[in-house]
Design a protein that fits this description.
CATH superfamily of the largest domain: Cadherins
Bound molecules: 2-acetamido-2-deoxy-beta-D-glucopyranose
Number of helices: 2
Strand content: 35-45%
Order of helices and strands: HEEEEEEEEEEEHEEEEEEEEEEEE
Oligomer: single chain
Largest sheet: 4 strands, antiparallel
Number of domains: 3
Shape: rod-shaped
Strand order of the largest sheet: 1-3-6-5
Helix content: under 10%
CATH topology of the largest domain: Immunoglobulin-like
Number of strands: 23
Structural class: mainly beta
CATH class of the largest domain: Mainly Beta
Distance between the termini: 122 Å
Length: 293
């Protein structure tokens, strides 16, 4: 026990000497040779402090890979410019430590650049227009995922949200998922209810409700509903039996003839002459009449 204690004491006693000797050989040292720095630093940001012993001078090796980013101010190694993580994730610089006799030594400093959420998601197109036939099947894709996917230079996961700014048109269009912006038809369309709507798609680089800095992009999607030949012609006059005026029921036409007389006049009908219209009026389809019985 006594021996080992003596040994330990000697080693501890010797250590400062060893350290001192090696430091003197080098002449220069830094507080931190692997510092981390957040991107978008201001110029003059201190990367580390340099200790130079008397008789030595320190300079930046001009052959350093990232020489142009660094400057020595007094005893500080500083960044001379702002660094963008999206361009540089690591900067390498060598310090040359020289003594009076011209002997020199090199010290490698690796500066690790840390990412900051400083880029917004970007849509390829921020304004889209789609024409959607009224009889489009529920679940059909209205706008493909690739047309609506946003990119983010910070490589963040993007969270999407779809809303509409036209009242009464909610719930018809939806996105496939919070990370999938494909727009599909969620509910059957009816040209009589609305003929156009405007959707707003948000792309955020943090989930809704995150306390972190969130960058948001928006895209506007104008949807025009095209009338389809979905309804049969209506004989007039007719009475709407539902509130959205999509079903119209006509009463039978009636006329009178005298059984024993040959009439030469057109038959007079009640409640009016035979006349039908096509409720899908924008299509301007021709109406063809025939007597079936
Ligand atoms: C639409 O898709 C959902 C989910 O896949 C399914 O439950 C539903 O039956 C589909 N509706 C129609 C009309 O195809
Ligand atoms: C049928 O006969 C009656 C009596 O002659 C006449 O008043 C009436 O106008 C006739 N109706 C038609 C539809 O011709």
């Amino acid at each position: 026990m006594a021996v080992s204690h003596w040994l330990l004491t000697s080693v501890l006693f010797l250590l400062p000497f060893i350290k001192q000797v090696s430091a003197q050989q080098q002449g220069c040292s830094v507080n931190n040779s692997r510092p981390s720095v957040y991107e978008n630093n201001s110029p003059g940001y201190v990367v580390t402090t340099i200790h130079v012993e008397s008789g030595f001078t320190v300079t930046i090796d001009p052959t350093s890979p990232d020489f142009s980013f660094f400057v020595i101010q007094g005893s500080e190694l500083q960044l001379s410019q702002s660094v963008d993580y999206e361009e540089n994730t690591l900067l390498i610089v060598y310090l040359i430590c020289q003594d009076a006799a011209g002997q020199s030594d090199s010290l490698e400093i690796l500066v690790i650049i840390l990412d900051v959420n400083d880029n917004s998601p970007v849509f390829k197109q921020t304004n889209l227009t789609e024409f959607v036939p009224e009889d489009t099947k529920v679940n059909a894709t209205i706008v493909a995922r690739e047309d609506l996917s946003a990119t983010d230079a910070d490589l963040d996961t993007i969270f999407y949200e779809l809303t509409t700014i036209v009242s009464g048109t909610d719930g018809y269009f939806a996105i496939k998922g919070v990370n999938n912006p494909e727009i599909y038809l969620q509910k059957a369309l009816d040209y009589e209810r609305f003929k156009l709507t405007t959707l707003i798609l948000y792309a955020r680089d943090r989930p809704v409700g995150s306390t972190e800095t969130t960058n948001t992009a928006t895209a506007t999607i104008n949807i025009f509903i095209e009338q389809a030949d979905t309804k049969p012609p209506w004989f007039l006059p007719c009475t709407f039996i539902n509130t959205d005026n999509s079903i119209c029921i006509s009463s039978p036409y009636t006329g009178k003839v005298n059984i024993s007389e040959m009439s030469t006049e057109p038959l007079i009908l009640e409640p009016g002459p035979i006349y039908a219209i096509d409720p899908d009026y924008t299509l301007n389809e021709k109406i063809v009449y025939s007597i079936v019985g």
